[in-house]
Design a protein that fits this description.
binds magnesium ion; alpha/beta; 3 domains; binds nicotinamide-adenine-dinucleotide; Rossmann fold; four-stranded mixed beta sheet; Rna Polymerase Sigma Factor, Chain: A; seven-stranded parallel beta sheet
Length: 401
């Protein structure tokens, strides 16, 4: 296990900040915090542009600071919060400052590489980081891990499969593990043919069968890129070699991981598909909180099924596995190209099958030059990210024409 948690002190209120407070994970986090307000002191809440929801959340949770990334939303946010004593700020630098405000626990739930700089700023204060923003680890995994080690921060995985592995490996020596499998629901197109997927509209892809999530991760779940990003995330979080990681399709989304041991034992973690379960584990860790989620009734569910992923119909997963194995800058390029392609698909500019094609072509093009090492600094990561986005944009414009 790469995570090396230490038990926190008890007694005082837990000072919490939520980066990406208005998103699906952010809202679920604040739902849990709001159920036991005496236990928490809310420091900073951030959002991209949704200033009205951010103002509501800041008021409801008595936050000290509310920050919008979009500078144009500043005046309206300030108007809504004037006279409340809640400080207001806007812009990328303000996001980083909010993340650096002293806190005991920070939820990193901004979507995409946009979360890297603020999340690293939170990590640097050496507190507990509840990590939902998997793109941080995909874009700059080694740098992120080094920053965690240097600051003494405690990384608590929030992605349901990684939280599952975290729970299933408690007390397990690293050399006991033979293989770790994460499960995939298979997404809305699990049974669709390539011909059907070629015509899939964003509205079809946004209908996730089991989880209710933000648009970017929902599209990633439809392409299975999400599982690729999660293998990269697991590799960094748990220091596990790529060839010891696997994906198993499990449409019921009840079993979240299978940790296979050298003695033939398999440790699985199960729960209903409600993100408040893994979020609560990170929030209460090392204790367990009460979560008002439907209890798992396996008798009622009756059947749990498992299958191999189909890499021919879902090439994104294979592309991500290849990038993980290649190392260097490949995962940074993969993430940037995927973000650009998913946004273009959601905007109706490319087809569903163009998403993995643009990612694959961007990786091919980026690797025509001398192979680049993994980013060693935030500046490196952002620069690589920007140049990969430019390539992806050029390729998808050619496709859309
Ligand atoms: P979402 O789209 O619902 O919310 C994203 C949040 O980030 C919002 O608060 C938004 O305002 C903010 N944001 C977006 N762009 C920003 C930018 N450029 N600068 C600053 N803030 C910005 O996304 P989500 O589903 O909550 O996912 C958040 C992260 O958690 C993602 O990395 C996702 O992969 C991960 N995750 C989500 C789930 C889930 O169930 N939703 C599960 C596992 C992991
Ligand atoms: Mg997940």
């Amino acid at each position: 296990m790469a995570l090396n948690p230490v038990k926190p002190e008890t007694g005082a209120k837990l000072r919490v900040s939520v980066l990406g407070a208005t998103g699906s994970v952010g809202e679920s986090t604040l739902d849990l915090i709001g159920r036991d307000p005496g236990r928490y002191e809310v420091i900073a809440l951030t959002a991209n542009g949704n200033y009205s929801r951010l103002a509501e959340l800041a008021l409801h949770h008595h936050a000290q600071l509310a920050v919008v990334a979009d500078p144009e939303a500043y005046n309206r946010l300030r108007g809504l919060l004037s006279g409340t004593g809640i400080k207001v700020a806007a812009g990328e630098a303000a996001l980083v400052e909010a993340a650096a405000m002293p806190a005991d626990w920070v939820m990193a739930a901004i979507v995409g590489a946009a979360g890297l700089a603020p999340t690293l700023a939170a990590v640097k204060q050496g507190c507990r980081i509840a990590l939902a923003n998997k793109e941080c680890l995909v874009t700059a995994g080694a740098l992120f891990k080094r920053t965690v080690a240097a600051s003494g921060a405690t990384l608590l995985p929030v992605d349901s499969e990684h939280c599952a592995i975290f729970q299933a490996t408690v007390g397990l020596p690293a050399d006991a593990i033979e293989r770790i499998a994460i499960t995939a629901s298979g997404g809305p197109f699990r049974t669709w043919s390539r011909e059907q997927m070629a015509k899939a509209k964003p509205a079809d892809a946004l209908k996730h069968p089991t989880w209710n999530m933000g648009p970017k991760i929902t599209i990633d779940s439809a392409t299975l890129m999400n599982k690729g990003l999660e293998l990269i995330e697991a590799h960094h979080l748990f220091d596990i070699a790529p060839d010891k990681l696997a994906v198993i399709v499990h449409p019921q989304s009840i079993v979240h991981c299978l940790v296979e041991c050298r003695d033939g034992s398999v440790m699985a973690q199960m729960s209903a598909h409600d993100m408040r379960v893994p979020i609560a584990y990170a929030l209460g860790w090392p204790d367990r909180l009460d979560v008002p989620t439907p209890r798992l009734d396996l008798v009622k569910i009756g059947q749990l099924t498992f299958d191999e992923p189909d890499l021919a119909r879902f090439p994104a997963l294979g592309i991500a596995i290849a990038a993980l194995k290649r190392g260097g800058s490949a995962c940074t390029v993969l993430n940037a190209a995927n973000e650009v392609a998913v946004a273009a698909y959601l905007d109706g500019n490319i087809g569903f099958l163009d998403i993995p094609a643009v990612v694959a072509d961007t990786l091919d093009r980026a690797e025509r030059g001398p192979s680049l090492p993994a980013p060693a600094s935030l500046e490196d990561a952002l620069q690589l990210d920007v140049s990969a986005r430019a390539i992806a944009f050029e390729l998808l414009t050619a496709r859309a024409a």
